C-alpha cells in the first residue's frame, strides 16, 4: 500500500516534468523558426547559400553517421574510433590519388575517373579491414564486460588511430592539388551558384542509404544482423554465427567510413589527423538526433546538423558565428538526450523510457 501511494505521488511529478520539457522544446523550436524566417526575409541569397552548404556537409556527415548507427544497432556500442577510421581513409585516398596515380592540377578525364574509382575501392577495403580488425582485437574480448569497458576502449582506439595518422603523414594537412570533381553549374538563383561537385556529394548518400536498407531488410545477412541486434544468445541458438555477423557489420561500417574519407578529401581537398575525431563527434550527434540504430534517422540527423552548422557559420542576423558551432551542436545533443533520447525517428523502449 505504501509503494502504491508513492507511485501515485510520483506519477503527477513525472507528467509535470514531461510537460515542462515539451514546453521548453517547443519554445526553442519556435525561436529557431522565427530566427530563420527573419534571416530569410533580410538576406534570402545568403540563406540559400547556407542551406545548400548545409545539405552538402550534412551528406558527408551522413556517410559517417550510418557507420555509427550500424554498429550501435548490433552491439549498442558507440565506436568512437569510427571517425578516425574515416580520417585514415581520407589520407589513404589522397595518397592514392597523388602518389600512386599521379593526379596533378589539371588531370584529364581518362586519368581522373579511373583514379577516383580505384582510390575509392582501396579506401573502402582498407577502412573496412581496419574496422573489422579493431572489433576482433579490441572489442570482441570485452563482449561480456561491463559497458564502460568497451566504451573506454573505443576512446583509446580513437587516440591510437590519431597517433597513427600523425606518424604516417605528420601534423600538417594532407592536401590534394585541386577539387577533382566536376565544377559545372547545376543552377544559379539570385547570384548563388550550385555546382556539380556539391550535388555529387549529396547524390551519393541516396544510393548508399538505399543499399544499406536493402542489405538489412531483404538479405540473409541482414536478417542475421537484425536477429543478432535483437537477442544475441537466441540468434546463436538458432544457428547464426554471431561473431561473423558482428565482424561483417564492422566491415560494412568501415567501408562507409572509407567512402566518406575519399569524398571529403576530393571535395575539401585537405584532411588532417584530428579532423576524424571532430567530424566523428558531429556524425555521432547526428546519429543520436535522428535516432541511433535507425538508418534513415542517421541521414536525417546528419542533414539537420549540417544545416545547423552552416546557418550558424553563414547567416548574418544575430548568428553566434563559427566560434560557437561546436557548443551549439553539443548543446543540441544534450537537449536530445534529456528530452527525447530516442531521437527523431527512433522508438522509445522500456530501457530508454
Number of helices: 12
User: Structural class of the secondary elements?
Assistant: mainly alpha
Q: Report the count of strand segments.
A: 4
Radius of gyration: 22 Å
Mean pLDDT, to the nearest integer, reads 84
Strand content: under 5%
The residue ranges in which pLDDT falls below 50 over 5 or more consecutive positions are 349-353
Spatial arrangement of strands, main beta sheet:
1-4
Helix and strand sequence: HHHHHEEEHHHHEHHH
- Biggest β-sheet: count, sense, barrel? 2 strands, antiparallel
Distance between the termini: 25 Å
Global shape: globular
* Secondary structure: helix percent: over 70%
Give an overview in words.
The protein is mainly alpha-helical and 353 residues long. The protein has a domain of 204 residues. Helix content is 75%, strand content 4%. The protein has twelve helices and four strands, in the order H-H-H-H-H-E-E-E-H-H-H-H-E-H-H-H. The strands form two sheets. The chain has a two-stranded antiparallel ribbon with strand order 1-4. Helix 7 packs across helix 9. The chain is globular, with a radius of gyration of 22 Å. The C terminus is likely disordered.
Task: Tag the structure with descriptive keywords.
disordered C terminus, 12 helices, two-stranded antiparallel sheet, 75% helix, 353 residues, mainly alpha
Brief characterization of the structure:
The chain has 353 residues and is mostly helical. The chain has twelve helices and four strands.
Helix-strand layout with pairing:
Layout: H1 2-42, H2 44-75, H3 82-100, H4 109-139, H5 148-169, E1 174-175, E2 185-189, E3 192-195, H6 196-218, H7 220-230, H8 232-237, H9 242-268, E4 270-271, H10 275-290, H11 295-314, H12 325-339
Amino acid at each position: 500500500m505504501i509503494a502504491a501511494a508513492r507511485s501515485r505521488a510520483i506519477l503527477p511529478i513525472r507528467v509535470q516534468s514531461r510537460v515542462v520539457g515539451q514546453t521548453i522544446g517547443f519554445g526553442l523550436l519556435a525561436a529557431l523558426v522565427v530566427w530563420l524566417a527573419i534571416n530569410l526575409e533580410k538576406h534570402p541569397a545568403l540563406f540559400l547559400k547556407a542551406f545548400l552548404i548545409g545539405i552538402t556537409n550534412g551528406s558527408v556527415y551522413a556517410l559517417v553517421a550510418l557507420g555509427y548507427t550500424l554498429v550501435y544497432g548490433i552491439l549498442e556500442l558507440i565506436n568512437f574510433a569510427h571517425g578516425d577510421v574515416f580520417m585514415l581513409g581520407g589520407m589513404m585516398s589522397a595518397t592514392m590519388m597523388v602518389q600512386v596515380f599521379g593526379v596533378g592540377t589539371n588531370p584529364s578525364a581518362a586519368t581522373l575517373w579511373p583514379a577516383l574509382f580505384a582510390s575509392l575501392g582501396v579506401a573502402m577495403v582498407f577502412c573496412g579491414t581496419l574496422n573489422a580488425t579493431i572489433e576482433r582485437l579490441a572489442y570482441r574480448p570485452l563482449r561480456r564486460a561491463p559497458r564502460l569497458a568497451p566504451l573506454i576502449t573505443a576512446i583509446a582506439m580513437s587516440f591510437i588511430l590519431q597517433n597513427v595518422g600523425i606518424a604516417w603523414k605528420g601534423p600538417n594537412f594532407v592536401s590534394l592539388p585541386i577539387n577533382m570533381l566536376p565544377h559545372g553549374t547545376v543552377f544559379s538563383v539570385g547570384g548563388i551558384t550550385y555546382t556539380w561537385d556539391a550535388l555529387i556529394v549529396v547524390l551519393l548518400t541516396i544510393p548508399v542509404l538505399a543499399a544499406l536498407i536493402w542489405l538489412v531488410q531483404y538479405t540473409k545477412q541482414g536478417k542475421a544482423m537484425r536477429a543478432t541486434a535483437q537477442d544475441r544468445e537466441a540468434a546463436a541458438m538458432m544457428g547464426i554465427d554471431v561473431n561473423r555477423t558482428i565482424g561483417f557489420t564492422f566491415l560494412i561500417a568501415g567501408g562507409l567510413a572509407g567512402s566518406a574519407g575519399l569524398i571529403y578529401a576530393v571535395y575539401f581537398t585537405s584532411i588532417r589527423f584530428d579532423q576524424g575525431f571532430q567530424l566523428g563527434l558531429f556524425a555521432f550527434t547526428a546519429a543520436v538526433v535522428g535516432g541511433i540504430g535507425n538508418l534513415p534517422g542517421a541521414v536525417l540527423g546528419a542533414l539537420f546538423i549540417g544545416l545547423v552548422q552552416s546557418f550558424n557559420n553563414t547567416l548574418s542576423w544575430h548568428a553566434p558565428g563559427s566560434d560557437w558551432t561546436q557548443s551549439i551542436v553539443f548543446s543540441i545533443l544534450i537537449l536530445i538526450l534529456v528530452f527525447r533520447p530516442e531521437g527523431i525517428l527512433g522508438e522509445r523502449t522500456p530501457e530508454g523510457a
